[in-house]
Design brief:
- The protein is of the alpha/beta class.
- Helices cover 16% and strands 29% of the residues.
- The strands form 5 sheets. Strands 15, 17, 19, 20, 22, 23, 25, 26, 28, 29, 30 and 31 form a 12-stranded parallel β-sheet that branches. Strands 1, 4, 5, 6, 8, 9, 10, 11 and 12 form a 9-stranded mixed β-sheet that branches.
- β2 (31-32) and β3 (36-37) form a beta hairpin.
- The two termini are 44 Å apart.
């Protein structure tokens, strides 16, 4: 069976900078925009670009990801030949190991790729929000007779030091890489999207197979460059968001509710597909007030919701005020509760007369870099009792009881980690 190009989608990451949101679920399976999961975007890009063979490499907490992808029906990837295949690490006769780096994960699935005798292999990351026609990138790769093409995005020069930077000549050929440079010589940041000619990829992976934590940016690209291969930078200028931090994840969701969003989820010609459950339409009561929101199917709104993204089957009680927040599916919020600039994960139960996101900001005591941005974050399957207040830059996970909140308050910057709840 021969395929011109197959895609390998790296979806094994934990996404630790998303804190309690990824405690029980891989980052690509985190909900986004009310009804989607992050992995829907690269999968939809594949099918919209005419790529019908995708290997999804999973590792960390893969259960929900596997259930979501299933046999690939929503993306039209349920094929007799090709389609979508979930590739967890597995035991081999000589040495068995977890995936230790992005390239090591691809190397361990060499047999899968060889089955399709591809001319080209597209390497994707499962945790970015964007729309991209990979076919156009492949045309660029062919036109330049490239061995490796790296999708790059111009970033502001002052931010360039946070990225892997490519320095290219006038033809787009890469002359130098700079990994998070102190003084960058270019502003072309690698997006972690690569097209390899199969021969070049195979040679590099075999040569580097014993490299510990073998990674594309750190090891494979420098190897290809040293071998004199042709590496080109493909410049992409569309919308692309790395939702790796709670702040960028919150922002990307909030951008969806602009009157004319920069990223349109509803374009007919480039649809984003997802696994849809059959659920009734949402119900907004006569007394409810709703403005600038995305509200999922099956949700019931009895209070006020402003500037927020609400998933499916969410219940917002009477007298509630939800503002600038993300509330994921199957969450119930009791009466007269205020939620202000917070992220509530799936299957949460919040009591009545609760205030989430109150008071001044204070740095988080446990993970100041993660729980920042003025957000209150509640992990999935958590329970919040009645009559408590939760400050900003906080994290709560598990079934909490009134005793967990001295004087009924979790001050800004504090964390509660309680016992895990049962699935609702």
């Amino acid at each position: 069976m021969k395929k011109e190009m197959i895609a390998m989608l790296l979806a094994g990451g934990q996404g630790s900078r998303l804190g309690v949101l990824t405690e029980k679920v891989a980052k690509p399976a985190v909900a986004f925009g009310g009804k989607y999961r992050i992995i829907d975007f690269p999968l939809s890009n594949c099918i919209n670009s005419g790529i019908d063979t995708v290997g999804v490499l999973t590792q960390y907490q893969p259960l929900r990801l596997n259930t979501h992808i299933g046999i690939g029906i929503p993306w039209d990837l349920d094929r007799n030949e090709g389609g979508v295949t979930v590739l967890p690490p597995y035991e081999k006769s000589e040495n068995s190991e977890w995936y230790t780096g992005t390239a090591n994960a691809i190397y361990q699935n060499m047999e899968f790729m060889q089955e399709y005798h591809p001319d080209y292999v597209l390497i994707l990351s499962g945790d970015h929000i964007y729309k991209m026609d990979y076919e156009v990138m492949l045309d660029f790769h062919k036109a330049n007779k490239a061995d490796v093409t790296i999708a790059c995005m111009p970033v502001p020069m002052e931010e360039a030091r946070r990225f892997g930077i490519m320095v290219a000549d006038d033809t787009g050929r890469i002359t130098e890489f700079q990994e998070k440079p102190e003084h960058p010589s270019s502003n072309l940041a690698s997006m972690g999207i690569y097209i390899f000619s199969w021969k070049a990829l195979k040679e590099a992976l075999i040569a580097l197979k014993d490299q510990n934590g073998c990674d594309f940016g750190k090891h494979v690209l420098p190897y290809c460059k040293e071998k004199g291969q042709r590496l080109f930078a493909y410049e992409y200028n569309g919308y692309w968001k790395d939702v790796g931090t709670l702040g960028s994840y919150w922002e990307a969701n909030m951008e969806l509710i602009d009157i004319i969003p920069e990223f349109n989820l509803y374009e007919e010609f480039w649809r984003i597909y997802t696994k849809g459950d059959i659920i009734p339409p949402q119900y907004i009561s006569a007394d409810a007030v709703v403005d600038r929101c995305l509200i999922g199917e099956g949700s019931e709104i009895y209070g006020e919701v402003h500037n927020s993204v609400i998933g499916s089957n969410v219940i917002v009680g009477k007298g509630c005020v939800i503002r600038d927040s993300i509330i994921m599916r199957n969450t119930t919020i009791g009466d007269n509760t205020i939620v202000d600039k917070a992220i509530l994960a799936e299957d949460i139960s919040v009591g009545s007369n609760v205030h989430i996101g109150f008071g001044e900001e204070a740095p988080n005591v446990k993970k100041p870099a993660v729980y920042a941005f003025g957000l209150a974050v509640i992990g999935e399957r958590s329970v919040i009792p009645d009559n408590v207040k939760i400050g900003r830059n906080t994290a709560v996970s598990g079934v909490t009881v009134p005793e967990d909140y001295p004087d009924g308050v979790l001050p800004g910057g504090q964390v509660i980690e309680a016992e895990e709840g049962e699935t609702l």
